[in-house]
Amino acid sequence: MAFQIITSRxxxxxxxxxxxxVTAIRFKGxxxxxxxxxxxxxxxxxxxxxxxxxxxxPKTCVPA
Length: 64
Prior knowledge:
Elements: E1 3-5, H1 15-19, E2 25-28, E3 31-34, H2 50-54, E4 61-63
Antiparallel strand pairs: 1-4, 2-3
């Protein structure tokens, strides 16, 4: 399973983009998105999902 960004909650602070170890997060159109095929939920890199950990708005980066 991958994570997703709830675009209506995202403030576009870009903190998550730089924390993703596999560069699955990118700016597309007017929103940040997480590539579902590329997201590995930080498995093998971190114990918690970094996008959710660094996001200033709770429940913005959530399991898809």
